[in-house]
# Entry
Amino acid sequence: MSDAVPTLPLANIDAPTVVGWREWAYLPELHLEPIRAKVDTGAKTCALHAFYVEPFMKAEQPWVRFGMHPVAKRNDIVVHCEAPLADHRPVTDSGGHRELRYVIVTPIRLGSRLFSAEITLTDRESMQYRMLLGRNALSGFLVDPTRSYCLGRYRRSAKRNDRA
# Structure
């Protein structure tokens, strides 16, 4: 009888996608251009900037509309979004402050991977990154904190038709 530990062939193990500490996130159902997002393994859920949030009913289902400034330090660029409301619950931020937040579930594309994730809506006006990617969105990803934009860069065009 051998004391050797059996090993699995590497071909049977799916390699995780490597992401850096910040990446470009695409939110196709919200009709937003890609957003610079900070990868935050300390956050349980994703968070998206919203400077106002209004609940409303659409086809007898709860929805929210919200406004956001998708580019840091550019309050002149405003995008209004709508999404089905998934939940409304208390969230504690990294500073220990408890806040009641609206929650949506929407697809996120990171690189070539598309998946749905819960995203809380909160005012991130004072933050450099308009979106946090929390642990709920990082399954199957390996975070390399020494790298940025592992999945590619996005360049905003000089001419834009901003939605107001």
Summary: The chain has one domain: 16-140.
